Amino acid sequence: MPSLEEKVFNKTLAFFCAVREIGCSFDSPDLFDYFGNSVGDGTADDDDGSGTPHPRSQSCGLCSGSMVLSYSRYGQPHLQCQFLTWGDTSHLVLRNLEEFDLDYLKALLSGDHLRIQYHEENALHKGYGPLTGCTFQASPSQQIAQCC
C-alpha cells in the first residue's frame, strides 16, 4: 500500500504533467477589444509593453502562456497563466492546491533542476518516483499504463 507521501508525490507529478501538456488553452478569436478592433489584428493593443506580444496576437489564437505558481494576498497558493490580468481574466487559474507538494510543483514549473533532483532522489530512496527502475516486461502489442 502506498504511503501518503508517495500518493502526494505521484499526484503532484501527474498534475504537473497534465498542466504542462494542456496549459492555458484560452482561445478567443472572436473577441473584440474595447475599441472594436479584432483581438490579434496587429494593432498596438496586441503588445502589453513588455516586448512580448500578447498570446492572442498569434495567428493560431491559442494562449501560449506558461503556468506560474502564485499566492493570494491571504497566502493561498494558486496556479495561473502568466498572461492573467485584472483586465483579461479569461486565462486559466487553478486554486485549491493544498493536496500537492508545493515545493516540488514550484521546482517543476520553474525548471529548478537541483530542487527537482532533490525531490526525485528522496522518492527514489523511499522506493517510488520516476527514478526507480522497472523490471516489468510486456510484449510490444500490450498496452501497459504503468510499471507493475
SSE inventory with pairings:
Layout: H1 4-22, E1 67-71, E2 77-81, E3 93-94, H2 102-110, H3 113-125
Antiparallel strand pairs: 1-2, 2-3
Helix pairs in contact: 1-2, 2-3
Task: Walk me through what this model shows.
This protein is of the alpha+beta class and 148 residues long. The chain contains three helices and three strands, in the order H-E-E-E-H-H. It has helices at residues 4-22, 102-110, 113-125, and strands at 67-71, 77-81, 93-94. The protein has a three-stranded antiparallel sheet with strand order 1-2-3, covered by helices on one side. Helix 2 (102-110) packs across helix 3 (113-125). The chain is globular.
Primary descriptors:
148 residues; alpha+beta; 3 helices; 3 strands; 28% helix
Biggest sheet layout: 3 strands, antiparallel
Helix content: 25-40%
Strand content: 5-15%
What gyration radius follows from the Cα positions, in whole Å? 20 Å
Average predicted local confidence, pLDDT = 76
Ends apart, CA distance between termini: 13 Å
> If helices are DSSP runs of H or I spanning 4 or more residues, what is the number of helices?
3
Order of helices and strands: HEEEHH
Class of secondary structure makeup? alpha+beta
CA-based shape = globular
The strands making up the biggest β-sheet line up spatially as 1-2-3
Describe the oligomeric state of these chains in a short phrase: single chain
